[in-house]
Amino acid sequence: MIFTETKIKGAYIIEIKKLGDERGFFGRSWCKNEMEDHGLNGNVVQANTSFSAFKGTLRGMHYQKHPFEETKLIRCTKGSIYDVIIDLRPDSPTFKQWFGIELTADNYKMLYVPEKFAHGFITLEPNCEVTYLVTQFYAPEAEAGIRFNDPQFGIKWPTDVTVISDKDQNHPDFNSSMLP
Q: Is beta strand 46-52 parallel, antiparallel or unpaired with respect to 80-87?
């Protein structure tokens, strides 16, 4: 696995180190030991899959509050998405900064999202599937979100939103009482 830290400390782009031959390639997409060797949380307890039928489907910006904060490893396994994270750690030098990356079934990149980050994505084509490995069980009572177009963050989404749930559309703008 190849680990590249993003501009936001603690968030990583992780790529599969491909060992190829005439058949194609083999590579590791998950290794608890390699994660922990890089100081990352490797205690996965759940794997989730999301399918979106339409281009422009936006899901986010989601996070879980204390004591259910979760680390996520995101990979697009079909289609392509623009994946976005926001640093909600008040003691971080990158507090309230966002980072976005295109994850596709073809580029095999993954995004490691630390605890206390909001996360969301928009689909760049129809029929997208996304897999999440998470370090915390889903706790509905700890679920929270921030509006995807909150002007405090100025996220530059690469395509128009065509599908969004009422819940995601109506998340509030961020304020400090919302910290995870």
A: unpaired
Tell me the CATH number at 157: 2.60.120.10
Q: Which residue has the tokens 């083999």?
A: 26
Burial of 161 (0-12, 13-18, 19+ CB in 10 A): middle
Catalytic residue among 62, 63, 82, 119: 62
Predicted structure pTM score:
0.95
How many structural domains does the chain have?
A: 1
178 in a structural domain: no
Q: Tokens representing 67?
A: 């004591």
- Residue 67 backbone class (left: φ over 0; alpha: ψ -120 to 50; beta: rest): alpha
Amino acid letter, 168: D
Q: Return the bridge partners of 104, or none.
A: 80
Residue 177 lies in a domain: no
Q: State pLDDT tens for residues 22-63.
A: 999 999 999 999 999 999 999 999 999 999 999 999 999 999
Catalytic residue among 66, 82, 132, 138: 132
Question: Position of tokens 């129809």?
Answer: 126
132 labelled catalytic: yes
